[in-house]
Amino acid sequence: MSSNAEAQASRGDAFKWAIVILLVALGVIGNNYYSAESLLYRLIAILVLAGVAGFVALQTVKGKAFFTLAKEAKTEIRRVVWPTRQETMQTTLIVLAVVVFMSLVLWGVDSFLGWVVSSVIS
Questions:
Q1: Backbone angles phi, psi at 36, to 5 degrees
Q2: In this entry, which stretches build a coiled coil (predicted)?
């Protein structure tokens, strides 16, 4: 019995995704066809089509899973302990110091190897 329900849900999702693809294609083709019209009108039409396509996509199984993931991510972001300004500055300065140091080391190694190669070739 549940496999029959899953098959119907799968067919329904396929139909919904086809509608989403059709709406996106309609937006692209319509934007090209009405290229002489005002950019504002075309932008409003594309935003409306994108909103409808997004709403239809959220009605699918994957769309609902995505919406749940987004809600959980928002909850997790609230739990993050963000660094203080001082910690951010210290970390940034350490990263910059390491980058400058490594660039000087690599420049020195490259110069040395270039000198060795030019000595061997000459």
A1: -80, -15
A2: none
**How far is 1 from 110, CA to CA, in rounded Å?**
70
Residue 115 to residue 108: CA distance in whole angstroms: 10
Q: What are the CA-CA distances from residue 80 to residues 27, 67, 72, 74, 104 (Å)?
A: 39, 20, 13, 10, 36
**Phi and psi, residue 83, nearest 5°:** -70, 155
List the structure tokens of 121. 């070739």
**Model confidence at 8: pLDDT above 70:** no
Check residues 71 and 7 and name the one with the higher pLDDT: 71
Quick one: pLDDT at residue 113?
Answer: 97
